[in-house]
Amino acid sequence: MLPKKILLSVAGILAGALLLSACSSDDNGGTPGGASASDSASPSATPVAVTFEPAGGAAVNPATPVVVKAANGKLVDVTVTNTAKGKTVAGKLATDGLSWTSTEPLGYGSTYKIVAHAQGADGKPIEQDNQISTIAPKKQANANLIPAPAAVSSTGVGVGQPIVFSFGKIAVKNKAEVEKALTVESTPKQEGSWYWIDDSNVHYRPKDYWKAGTQLKVTAKIYGVDFGNGVFGAEDRTETYKVHDSWIAKADGNTEQMQIFHNGAMVKSMPISMGKDATPTHLGAHVISDKQANYTMDSCTYGVCPPDPKAYRSNEKFSERISNDGEFVHENPNSVGQQGSSNVSHGCINLNAANAEWFFQNMGLGDVVEVTNSGGPQLPVWDLYGDWSKSWADWQAGSAVK
């Protein structure tokens, strides 16, 4: 048996050797095989977080897209459902799974339940719900187009045709916001601008007449647009028009002749009789808005009724309206003797039978009748299509977007 002192020394040596062995293993992070303590830990315990836009609470505009986002994980799917109708809203999940966005508008005055399924980095799935409601307008405004696109789809329109949006009996308070939602794209491109004729009607025209053959794409993205006074846009609308050949008639009160130009070349001249001194034809560029082979002209339609001596009612042939206060180009056999020499009408441009029929066959909606030297006042901008009575600077000033 070794002495006690020697045994203590041996024990000390062994303990030191074990201590050195433990220290040398710590060179690779203190775990066998060089793995760190953090590497061997479990995945992050932070759960996936799902957020909703709009968040809910106050009623939202239905044109506002629904956006669902995920953090610390990814979305698996999202369902947005109209609680009253059970209809789901279309949407698209981003390729990275971090967001989902609706691709169609919501409805007015509706409630929607949103259900999002997501999976976190920890591998745990979750379901997150939300609910939103949309505003309910007092009234909705429709974007009525003039001329009606279907009515001119086969014929096209003339080079003087303004594009008109009429909102019926709705008085638009937020004109700038509404105007920003309206666009006219012309091919080839031509400068144009909007002009508010009144609170319910806005017109668009180019700086100069449209070029023959122009294609027009007209869009009203008014759904969800606040018109003011509790009125919101009812629905979006996109239509197209085609501008046909250029037809421009030039009626001169001095020569009592009207010359017709087709694509810039004069093709016909005809004697005319315009409005007499008491009812002179308006000056300026008129745009044809309607044509009827047989038409009853009644001065009462614009407020001149019997027993007023200026009142009249007569049936006329080959009539084309050029303003809303009773001015037409039409046949009048009673004034043939004065045609080419004096003005005797109530404001219309009278033609003989052959010339009236030729004019009717060749001139149509949107074509232009320019009147000079009639002795009358300028055609007012508000008189249906008095758009060309304004200079370009004055026309641009009529836009609500500054």
Can you walk me through this structure?
With 402 residues, the protein is mainly beta. The chain contains four helices and 26 strands. The strands form seven sheets. A five-stranded mixed beta sheet has the order 20-19-18-26-21, with no helix packed on it. Strands 1-2-5-4 form a four-stranded antiparallel beta sheet, with no helix packed on it. It has helices at residues 4-24, 175-180, 353-362, 392-397; strands at 49-53, 67-71, 73-82, 91-93, 99-102, 111-120, 125-133, 139-141, 144-146, 163-166, 182-187, 192-196, 201-206, 215-220, 226-228, 231-233, 237-242, 247-252, 257-262, 265-271, 284-287, 290-298, 313-321, 328-331, 349-351, 368-372. Helices cover 11% and strands 36% of the residues. The model is unreliable at 1-43 (pLDDT under 50). β18 (247-252) and β19 form a beta hairpin.
Short synopsis of the structure:
The protein is mainly beta and about 400 residues long. Helices cover about 10% and strands about 35% of the residues. The chain has helices at about 5-25, 175-180, 355-360, 390-395; strands at about 50-55, 65-70, 75-80, 90-95, 100, 110-120, 125-135, 140, 145, 165, 180-185, 190-195, 200-205, 215-220, 225-230, 230-235, 235-240, 245-250, 255-260, 265-270, 285, 290-300, 315-320, 330, 350, 370.
